[in-house]
Amino acid sequence: TSAFTKVAEYSGKHPKPADITFAYGTAGFRTIGETLESTVFRVGLLAALRSQSKQGQTIGVMITASHNEERDNGVKLVDPMGEMLQQSWEGYCTSMANAATDDDVVAVLSSIIESEGIDVSIRPKVAYARDTRPSSPLLQAALEDGLAALDVEAINYGIVTTPQLHYFVRCINTADSAAAAYGEPTEAGYNKKYGAAFLRLVEGKPHPSKLYIDAANGVGAPQVRKLAEAINSPYFNIEVCNGDTESLGKLNMGCGADYVKTNQRQPASMTLTPGDRYCSFDGDADRIVYYYADEHGSFHLLDGDKISTLAATYLRDLVSAAGIEDLQVGVVQTAYANGSSTSYIKDTLKLPTVFAKTGVKHLHHEAEKMHIGVYFEANGHGTVLFNAGAIAKLREAKPQSPAQADAVERLWALRDLINESVGDAMSDMLLVETILICKGWTLAQWDEAYTDMPSRLLKVVVNDRTIFKTTNAEQTLTAPKGLQDVVDALVAKFPRGRSFVRPSGTEDAVRVYAEAATRSDCDQLAYSVAGAVF
Ligand code: 16G
Ligand code: ZN
């Protein structure tokens, strides 16, 4: 343990608040920013161990609380291929964050080293970044102490989006492989890769109208401006709204993808002009939704389900145009997917669809099983994955005509356009823009595919959410006993009714979701199920 004197000493500078218990949840640690100093310091230590356990590959650390209010903050770890931290390590994170004393921190550290058989002689490598929150610099300093305590070779990426950090980590760890190299691990490399793929795909098509981007007054604002500068083309004609990252109190306030999706309305600061095109990022730019006003001024949302069906349709048509046999496109959704989108995928697109539990890592793992797996949460978080089987089929493709060759080429270009490491608002936006430009579609034309069922999401505060257990991708309750039967009986009363109850992974509450054929049925169903839960 003498090797860890520095750990104990530095840990002393970041004592754990005695009255708080931390938990590494669906999106890492997330709570009031000021309380997270000890946790972020310790995440620095964990990142070092994780890197050593992965033979010195680079691990990512992102300081952000996404769409949460400005005073919150959070931190999460990124695994070598840019994916979320392997689930089996989440428990280590939680134990480490809750160690009471500096000696306890060293003890937890030693026990992880022992259980994982970690070779501590390996020099650890970590890449880190933060969003624009006021508490982020303080937390970054705590992280740097954690990294220094274990002599980590660290790269500071400054203020970038969460998906950019995931991309950098993947680039760094694939740099030595000619076949798998992902790109240059810099902001310029990111903009160059995605910008070039986008221009390759839209070349020769008519220019689109301006796209207004609500950046939630977060890190997406400066980053999308840099992307636009790099693309420098009328194909990417954007105007950033809610791009103020300097003034306090503005981040995610009355704006951003979560606000727009939850309230089914545009940001408070924006007036929509019929015919114009709008989208919103969340505070760390890993979610995106689109919207527009029709000629009567009514608001229409194009959420993650709409993006998912648009992408799946386009990919399915390209695969068929390329003449590649048995290259399957599939879609992964969660229980929150609007029922109309699921029917559309099954009945109209005739594509396989599976349900995963809420949280990106669950969708990601299901999508990896498909050749081309499109996954989105209704809230706008998602991406497309091409698995090894798909790559092999694309490599083997023998186009019989210029049209087939063009389709194969476009599939390769799409793979370059998409950030496969994680859902990415900027990359997803370029994907949507590509498809709309190629089809010559307005947002209203995109919206015509299907009409959303009326839906309602309620939050029910209960004494103990841990008594709620689910199965079937969170669509069926197994406990408390008998409650699912009550829900089923309520659902049966309403035409095309659907409802489910699940404990939140991020808040101390239970969520109730309901859909039905009419708005009033839907609301009645939601409130009666909530009544049964309470
Ligand atoms: C986290 C998830 C998000 C999910 C949300 C559900 C990631 C990166 N984020 O924010 O995908 O929609 O949790 O929250 O996985 P809930 O469990 O409180 O409903
Ligand atoms: Zn986010």
From TrEMBL:
Enzyme class per UniProt: isomerase
Keyword set includes Chloroplast: no
InterPro entries: A-D-PHexomutase_a/b/a-I (IPR005844), A-D-PHexomutase_a/b/a-I/II/III (IPR016055), A-D-PHexomutase_C (IPR005843), A-D-PHexomutase_C_sf (IPR036900), AMG1_II (IPR049023), AMG1_III (IPR049022), PAGM (IPR016657)
Annotated Phosphoacetylglucosamine mutase AMG1 domain residues: 209-289, 303-441
Catalytic reaction list: N-acetyl-alpha-D-glucosamine 1-phosphate = N-acetyl-D-glucosamine 6-phosphate
Record-listed E.C. numbers: 5.4.2.3
Cofactor(s) named in the record: Mg(2+)
Pfam family, one: PGM_PMM_IV
SUPFAM superfamilies to which the protein is assigned, alphabetical: Phosphoglucomutase, C-terminal domain, Phosphoglucomutase, first 3 domains
Keywords carried by this UniProt record: Isomerase, Magnesium, Metal-binding, Phosphoprotein
Domain Alpha-D-phosphohexomutase C-terminal: 471-530
Domain (Alpha-D-phosphohexomutase alpha/beta/alpha) ranges: 58-88, 121-175
Cofactor note: Binds 1 Mg(2+) ion per subunit.
Pathway: Nucleotide-sugar biosynthesis; UDP-N-acetyl-alpha-D-glucosamine biosynthesis; N-acetyl-alpha-D-glucosamine 1-phosphate from alpha-D-glucosamine 6-phosphate (route I): step 2/2
Protein task: Catalyzes the conversion of GlcNAc-6-P into GlcNAc-1-P during the synthesis of uridine diphosphate/UDP-GlcNAc, which is a biosynthetic precursor of chitin and also supplies the amino sugars for N-linked oligosaccharides of glycoproteins.
Recorded family membership: Belongs to the phosphohexose mutase family.
Protein name: Phosphoacetylglucosamine mutase
Organism: Coemansia umbellata
